[in-house]
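HOLO CASE FILE
Compound: adenosine-5'-diphosphate
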Amino acid sequence: MDIILFGPPGAGKGTQGALLADHFGLQRLSTGDLLRDAVRQATPLGLEARRFMDVGELVPDQVILGLVREYLGGEGGAGVIFDGFPRTDAQDRALDWAHAEIGRRIDAVLVLDVSDESIVQRMAGRRSCPACGAVYNVHFEPPGIAGRCDRCGSELVSRVDDEEATVRRRLAVYQAQTAPVIDYYRLAGTRLEHVPGDQPVEQVQKALIERLSTASAPTQ
Ligand code: ADP
Ligand code: AMP
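Model generated. Tokens follow.
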């Protein structure tokens, strides 16, 4: 089962992707996490990507597609949850081609709907663990000890691109370049499920699991 977890930045894709991956035994592929790893390691790809990430723009398609091809070549046995990919029309087409080569397909696109104002508020409170990737929120999902990761004890950090002006730029980029990806899958007849993301984490998770557990007939 390969699925796309779709939605604006801050909708809860990383949070829900991790929970769903555990629940269904799937791999989670977050292009944002792969890019942040490359930035931390200061690889040539990371240095190139950072120029775009810090100002809330999309990283060029060729860079992203190189990363995803590399990943799909080595992983994906039980199925993949794509988080933050595809984000452009070139990326959705390239994923189809890569999938066709390995005899897989997207079984469902789950769209998390969240209002812009909730997103700005969430991003201001987001804290991430640079070591293990766990995500918290000082308002909604605080760690047990302030500033420390519950899982590995590392010091939590704020993302530079979570500053309000950059978040608003990312939301505009989402509307212009990423939201149309939904139409690509609608036209292809892929199962498309909208889930209200403006509710507590557990309720969103329950709704997602219910949608994924029901009959797999394509819906619009
Ligand atoms: P994305 O991966 O879509 O950018 P995240 O999963 O990182 O989003 O979530 C963004 C922020 O919002 C994080 O701080 C996270 O803890 C918090 N968050 C996620 N889901 C919810 C929710 N249902 N209600 C409130 N806060 C949430
Ligand atoms: P995310 O962690 O998904 O919010 O992504 C953080 C940033 O990484 C985005 O604002 C983009 O600059 C970049 N990025 C992540 N995934 C992609 C993608 N599929 N295409 C282009 N840029 C991406």
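CASE NOTES: The chain has a mean pLDDT of 92. Residues 7, 9-15, 122, 125-126, 135-137, 140-141, 200-201, 204 surround adenosine-5'-diphosphate (ligand 1) (CB under 6 Å).
CLOSED: yes
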